[in-house]
Each structure stands twice: as C-alpha cells, then as structure tokens.
Amino acid sequence: FSDVLALPIFKQEDSSLPQENETKHPPFQYVMCAATSPAVKLYDETLTYLNQGQSYEIRMLDNRKAGDIPEINGKLVKSIIRVVFHDRRLQYTEHQQLEGWKWNRPGDRLLDLDIPMSVGVIDIKTNPSQLNAVEFLWDPTKCTSAFIQVHCISTEFTPRKHGGEKGVPFRIQVDTFKQTENGEYTDHLHSASCQIKVFKPKGADRKQKTDREKMEKRTAHEKEKYQPSYDTTVLTECSPWPDTPTTFVNNSPTPAPTFTSAQHNTYSVPDSNSSSPNHQGDGTSQGSGDLHPSATIQETQQWLLKHRFSTYTRLFSNFSGADLLKLTREDLVQICGPADGIRLYNALKSRSVRPRLTIYVCQEPLRSIQLERQDAGNGDSSNGAIYVYHAIYLEEMAASEITRKLALAFNIPLHQINQVYRQGPTGIHILVSDQMVQNFQDESCFLFTTIKAENGEGFHIILK
Q1: Which of 64, 210, 345, 458 is an S-S bond match for 416, by CB 3.0 to 4.6 Å?
Q2: What is the fold, at CATH topology level, of the domain defined by 357-368+386-463?
Q3: pLDDT tens column, 358-413
Q4: Per-residue pLDDT tens digits for 305-340
C-alpha cells in the first residue's frame, strides 16, 4: 500500500519550493478542540489524546485570501472525516484489522458524528461498509463545527504478546472537495490531518496529566527540546487519502485496501512525498519466474495473478516489485493469513521444494576408453577413466520418475527405454519397482550401462 499519508513534516520540507505561498495559505483550516501533549519533541508532529466516545469539536474554517477559488463562493463543499492508522504496517493490514474489530464490536462504528452538537453541517452520510468515515456538506462562509466521536481505542490494535500496554497511534484526516459541472463533489480542494491516541473514558486526561508531570520534573535545558502543550490541535496539510475521488486520477485506477468504502471508483495519485515508489518505471517482464525488484506495478500485478494470488491483487494494487519484496515473512502472514502468507513468501523468495530422494548416477565408460586412458598414463593408473555423476532429484518415489529423470539427465529418448534394472547379487538383474525406489537410501551412487532389448527395439538400463 504505497499511498501512505504524507506526514506534516514532509509538507514543511516543501517550503523552499515555488508553491510556498500556497502552502502558507491553504484554502481551509481545521482545528480540533483538544489539547496537544507536552511530551512531544520540538520538531516532531503533535500528538493529541482523546477519550473513547467523547465528542470533540472540529472547527471548519474558511482560510481563503481574496480572490482564491472564487468558483465556490455561495456554494457548498463536501468534507470527509476519517480515523485511519498512522503506522504503515497497520495500513498494510487495514482490511484484516477492521474485520477483526467488527467481529469483536458488532454493530459499532469506529467514527461517528455527534449530530445534535454539530453546527452548519448538511446532508450527513455514513456508509455501513465504511465504519471509519463520515461525510457532510458545509458552507465555508458560515460558522461550521463538526463534533466527532472515536469509538476504537489504541490498545485494541496492539499485539497481546507485548502486553497491550502501548497503544497504536491513529490519524484524524479531513478531505474537502468542490462540486464539478456534473454536480458531483469529486474535485479535491484540501486535505489535513493530525496524530491522535485514543484511551478508555478519562484515560486521555490521565495521560495528559502524566505527561505534564514528567515535563515539570525536567530541567529548563531539557524542556527547550519539547513543544509546549497547545489548547487546540491544528490539522496540518497532507496528501489526500488514497481512495478519495479527485481530478488527478490514475490512468488505470485500482481500489485502495478495503478498509475504506468501495463506492468510490476513482483514486488520487500520491504526491512526491509518498514514501513508497509510485512511478511505473522500466522493469523486466514478470510473465514468469521470479519477481524482480525492478518490476513495475503492472508487472507485479501480473506476477501475483500468474502465481495464483489474485485475491490479493487489490490489496497490493500500488506495490512495485521492490515494495513487495521488502515485506518480511511476518508481514505477509499478518496481511494474508498463515497459509497464503507463507505461500506468498516462499514464492517471492523462490523457495524450491526439497526433493524426497536424491541419487547420484554416472554412465559407465566403455572398456576401450578405459584402456586408452591407462595407456596414456604409461600404465601407472588403473583408474584412468573419468567418472562424472549427475544428481537425480525425485519428487515422487516411483520407478517411472527415475526413468524420466535418467532420460532427461543423459539425453536419452524416453520412448526407447524399455526397463530399468538394478544389478543384484551374482550379477542378477532386478526390476526397479516403486517399492524398490522407496527403499533406496538417500544420496546413493550408481553406475549405469545400457544393453539392447531382446527384440532389438530400444534398450534396458542397468544400475550397478
């Protein structure tokens, strides 16, 4: 999932670019009425603690300068508020995380709008398949406040093997759109977000107090390294959430992970701040074989389809070959489940299946060649012949498998091999059967010779 949110610090890096004025004067500003933590270092992103189920006001402010975006004057705009994962690993597994949450909390939503307390919001919509988002229309020229309630807590998504004491951070993101000529609100105007952690009721107040007490114990020099706590949280500009409809759409749109609504069919292209490659550069064709790091997004999708991972093409819709190969075995098990995760990991790492039996076979040199080699060595060597062995790997413990592998290794036409025998005591020829193959010792060595069949058609192979 390469369309990861651009954190505010990345936006600050854009200050040297020509768009400086636009960055300083976004068309809208969103302010959440909740205090930021005092235990955040000076140049880190702010962190705000919220109580589960408590209503928090987000003020929707018109921040346009005179003459900015005149086409929305006297018109409504649409905003979508979401609670999403901040951590990249959890973004990879949003669908699975949401399904698990729904199972434990049937009928609940991750995010709700407190309608009685909200002001200026119109045509409020919630999608049953999109439990983490609410949307509404509002007039930028009028006083507008949306009161949100977050019902999921940060420790619900912490692996229990770590004790669950450290909760994961979420993000509150607001995406705003204007109306197009066809009447749909799909033209992206502005996006901003902030980092939050959600605690059980009154837990946020206790955490805020604890952070404040810790800071009071620090020296004045240490305090200079930390931000002050602000009474409100200003959402910082960021990239639009990947599944939000915009005018900048991919030429071949593909759905984002199903944590978000399936009702949208166009998706934004991540900007240059995206931390995973989103360009589709030159790569080696992935029609078959291994997946190469240079594989483009389209080639990675083809590779997934060819190797029977069509179920996950949507989840990995924005992954290049390099992105997919960076995932660890644990990542893939968490994303795809144990069975498919291990299968995908083995396919990516080209893990071959260990043979059930390995034998080494050499074609016995002719007697005349042996004599010539001995003469060339002035009779000093009785082992003048060179014995070159071939490794035969058997996936099936069957006589037919040995016949086929021998033919392949020594370039013998398979249809000309009548029988395969093993030379036994006193030189007798024992027919090689499936049962005999199953009793071969691993890494046994054999010399083999060929004799013409009695009827003159084809020949037999004798293993010695």
Answers
A1: 458
A2: Ubiquitin-like (UB roll) (3.10.20)
A3: 889 888 775 434 444 444 444 444 455 567 888 888 877 888 888 888 888 888 88
A4: 888 888 788 788 778 888 888 888 888 887 888 888
The answer to whether 452 and 459 have CB atoms below 8 angstroms apart is: yes
Q: How far apart are CA 50 and CA 68, in angstroms?
A: 34
Residue type present at position 228: P
> Which of 412, 418, 406 lies closest to 455 in space, CA to CA?
418
Q: CA–CA separation, 32 vs 148, rounded Å? A: 10
- Its sign, for the CA torsion 38, 41, 42, 48, is negative
Q: How confident is the model at residue 165 (pLDDT cuts 50, 70, 90)?
A: low
Q: What string of DSSP letters covers 144-160? A: EEEEEEE---GGGGS-G
Domain boundaries, the chain: 28-237, 297-349, 357-368+386-463
pTM beyond cutoff 0.70:
no
CATH assignment of 28-237, given 1.10.150, 3.40.720, 2.60.98, 2.60.40?
Answer: 2.60.40
Q: What is the pLDDT averaged over residues 32-43? A: 91
CB environment 265-291: b (16+ within 10 A), e (fewer): eebbbbbebbebbbeeeebeebeeeeb
What is the gyration radius of the CA atoms in the chain, in angstroms?
34
Instruction: Give strand pairing partners of 393.
Output: 358
Residue identified by tokens 């599944």 is 243
State how far Cα 208 lies from the chain centre. Answer: 34
- Determine how β-strand 144-150 pairs with β-strand 233-234: unpaired
Under DSSP, the state recorded for 20 is: H
